[in-house]
Specification:
The protein is of the alpha/beta class. Helix content is about 20%, strand content about 30%. The protein is built from 4 helices and 9 strands, in the order βαβββαβββββαα.
């Protein structure tokens, strides 16, 4: 209600989200859209007694492509700006990518996201070597690769040493400058 008539909204997705970002998307479109596609291979045992043997299992692909809930009220029509950087990863990266799905005119400003998302699988190798990796293949809503690629900003701006020393948020400043230069458009 507070922002419904604002000409633009800036979402700061630098870091990990602290709330349910999916609730935001329902106010940005009247379409039911899938925010991302998650797939993961899983082993389907034919016989539980021999499921650890390769010949006793099939590998299948489980795909989760859940549409967003549809909002029944007024849709926000203003500009959407999303601030991103290398700290935008995991659930934050999936949530951030969803803005582009529900609003293709979303402008991403900052540095590329980490390209690190999907659940974490932990295992210990011989020699007590601990490793962690994702068990999911997470792709953007349109099927494009997200892992290891990340979300690329439309406007690339990275913090400078001078800006940090002066206590300025140069990515946020770039968003304000973008909005001011596009206000008449």
């Amino acid at each position: 209600e507070t922002i419904k008539n604002a000409p633009a909204v800036i979402f700061d997705m630098r870091g990990y989200p602290r709330g349910d970002t999916a609730r935001i998307y329902t106010h940005l479109t009247d379409k039911s859209l899938a925010p991302a596609v998650f797939s993961r291979p899983y082993r389907d045992a034919k016989d539980l007694n021999i499921s650890y043997h390769e010949e006793g299992a099939n590998y299948s692909l489980m795909v989760r492509n859940e549409p967003a809930k549809r909002f029944q009220g007024e849709i926000y029509k203003g500009k959407i700006i999303v601030l991103i950087n290398e700290n935008t990863q995991s659930a934050a990266e999936g949530a951030t990518g969803s803005f582009a799905n529900v609003r293709p005119d979303t402008v991403f400003i900052g540095t590329p996201t980490a390209g690190a998302n999907g659940d974490v699988t932990y295992m210990v190798l011989p020699g007590n070597i601990k490793v962690a990796f994702t068990g999911h293949n997470v792709r953007r809503y349109d099927g494009q690769q997200l892992q290891r690629v990340g979300i690329q900003p439309k406007i690339f701006i990275a913090p400078t040493i001078r800006g940090i020393l002066e206590g300025r948020d140069e990515i946020l400043d770039a968003a304000h400058n973008f909005l001011q230069s596009n206000a008449a458009k």
